[in-house]
Amino acid sequence: MTAPLEFRGVSVAYEGSDRPALSQVDLLVDEGEFVLVAGETGSGKSTLLRAACGLVPHFTGGTLAGRVVVAGRDTATHRPRDLADAIGYVGQNPAATFVADIVEDELAYTMENLGIAPDVMRRRVEETLDLLGIAELRDRPLATLSGGQQQRVAIAAVLTAAPRLLVLDEPTSALDPVAAEDVLSSLARLVHDVAMTIVVAEHRLERIVHLVDRVVLLDRSGRIETGPPAEVFRTATIGPPVVRLGRALGWDPLPLSVRDARRSAADLRTRLATAGVPTHRAAGNAAASLRRVTFRYGGVTALDGVDLDIASGQIAAVMGRNGAGKSTLLHLLAGAIEARTGSVTVGGADPRRLSGRELIARVGLVPQDPGLLLYADRVDTECALADREGGLASGTTAEVLRELAPDLPADRHPRDLSEGQRLLLALAVVLAHRPPLVLLDEPTRGLDPHAKERLAAALGHLADDGAAVVLATHDVELAAALVDRVIVLADGDVITDGDARSVLCHSPTLAPQVARILAPLELLTVEDVAAALHEVG
Questions:
Q1: Residue 286 belongs to what H/E stretch?
Q2: What gap in Å lies between CA 322 and CA 309, rounded to an integer?
Q3: What 3-state class would DSSP assign to 66?
Q4: pLDDT by residue (tens digit) across 471-491?
Q5: Secondary structure, 3-state, 111-140
Q6: Are the CB atoms for 284 and 307 separated by under 8 Å?
Q7: CA 437 to chain centre
Q8: What is the per-residue pLDDT for 528?
């Protein structure tokens, strides 16, 4: 029986790049295998996945050497449409692939093109809606869904075609922790119950590393290292907090799950019981306020009578399940939409009444789709344009970009960047203006741990200088490492608003891995543990 996926000496190079995206990759993915593709931002993960389904080079361009074989079919002679029954692909921006207006129609589209019988189509739609927990969305217009809901629909639309091989690029990046766990558990069931082969690229390693059979780790030269997760991550420069904690403490075997780590941490919990905990930044004056704010999309209430003050000099995370109103809150503060009732003020003024230049001087928003902020055909041109429009000294935006992404090529077209690299470019465009209110919607999508550390450092400097920073995020590990305050939304209401440490440590869904391992101690990160160990001696 032919293997679901095989790379034979595959190299991929893009015009204008000084290094290959992939270099001499040999990879055989077996039937029923669950494979994680990991690596730094821009290391070639998306290129590998796109090559697997024939998008590289047929649609994305570039030069491909070697052979990619999917279920016995060479992608050089079979275009993506010829592989649709064998492989399903979900990219980082699922909304860009939608062809229908309604969720149920989107799920049926691929099956219609494959000529599947109507009774089979109906059964598969129902089964997939239940599998991914989105039955209540079946009649919803796709345009009204949150980013996370769109991501689950995109996965469902691929699954209805019953491919032998499923390839997903950052499938949980826009999902809340519970939804992400549900989706990954569903994928694991497909592997174990029906022997589907699944290849996933993911940066939020803590969500998936304990589920997979094998890791394919890419380096910056486009080469791969592959093996069992514990073997690969023992020496890798990246890894989830549970692995980094195990490496720091010399645990053997290296734990991959909170359960395994907690069993190894009994003596550590006792040793650290008397250690203190770090403090957060103190709140300054209110930089922005919402008073009795209500907002609706058609018949859907996104925010319902919300009262909230955003403090200067602090970093706040707005969290909650998909569709809770997080993005709506940020867009109201940015003046992009207008409240149905209530008032919004930024620096004492209604953002909807400010001129464009006045608004840019007071608030900066990076939306979930960073491409909305990018207009130029080169990275350096984009930076120069941001300097001119903001009245900044020449080179200001480029310098911020170098801090966030030191290796980003200046001559690349933004569309040729990875999703994470595009995000970093958009972040540089906004952060270079140093607005007193910074709003970031899912700012770690597509970012590796090192890129997240650089972003956290930049945001920390802004807050230390008095800016108010608000992140709408599902990334609990980022929140644990960075934020001072956590605001939790549910069904358009603020249900929790408090100190980040107390909120995260005592939440069964939002607690980071270290907090779960060391509970009831209020330690959030590996760095917290190191500081506590230093304190107790």
A1: strand 286-297
A2: 22
A3: strand
A4: 999 999 999 999 999 999 999
A5: HHHCCCCHHHHHHHHHHHHHHCCCHHHCCC
A6: no
A7: 22
A8: 96
Beta pairing, strands 363-366 & 224-227: unpaired
Answer for the pair 508, 496: CB distance below 8 angstroms, yes or no.
Answer: no
Confidence band for 291, pLDDT divided at 50, 70 and 90: very high
User: In this predicted model, what pLDDT tens digit does every residue of 421-455 receive, in sequence order?
Assistant: 999 999 999 999 999 999 999 999 888 888 999 99
DSSP E strand boundaries for 274-414: 286-297, 300-311, 315-319, 341-346, 363-366
**In the block, residue with structure tokens 């995000």:** 423
What is the reported pLDDT for 162? 87
Computed over its alpha carbons, how large is the radius of gyration of the chain?
23
What 3-state class would DSSP assign to 285?
coil
Q: pLDDT value at position 453?
A: 93
Largest CA distance in the chain: 69
How long a stretch of residues is the chain? Answer: 537
Q: Does this model's pTM top 0.85?
A: yes
Where is mean pLDDT largest: 95-104, 145-154, 207-216? 207-216
Q: Do residues 320 and 488 lie in contact, with contact meaning Cβ atoms separated by under 8 Å?
A: yes
The rounded distance, in Å, linking the Cα atoms of 101 and 103 is: 7
Q: What is the Cα–Cα distance from 261 to 191, expressed in whole angstroms?
A: 25
- Which residue, chain included where needed, has tokens 């403490």? 249
For residue 377, the Cα-to-chain-centroid distance in whole angstroms is 25
| Residue listed under structure tokens 């990879």 | 27
Residue 315: helix, strand or coil by DSSP? strand
Number of C-beta neighbours around residue 520 at 10 A: 9
Sign of CA dihedral 233, 239, 242, 244: positive
Distance CA 158, CA 168 (A): 10
What is the rounded distance in angstroms from the CA atom of residue 150 to the CA atom of residue 144? 9
Query: pLDDT tens across 38-59, in order?
Result: 998 888 999 999 999 999 988 8
Residue with tokens 């809606």: 129
CA 464 to chain centre: 26
CB within 8 Å of 126: residues ≥ 6 apart: none
Q: How many other CB atoms are there within 10 angstroms of residue 219's CB atom?
A: 15
If pLDDT is split at 50, 70 and 90, which confidence band does 26 have? very high
- Asked if the model's pLDDT at residue 14 lies above 90, the reply is no
Structure confidence at residue 108 (pLDDT) = 93
Q: Is the peptide bond before 520 cis (omega within 30 degrees of 0)?
A: yes
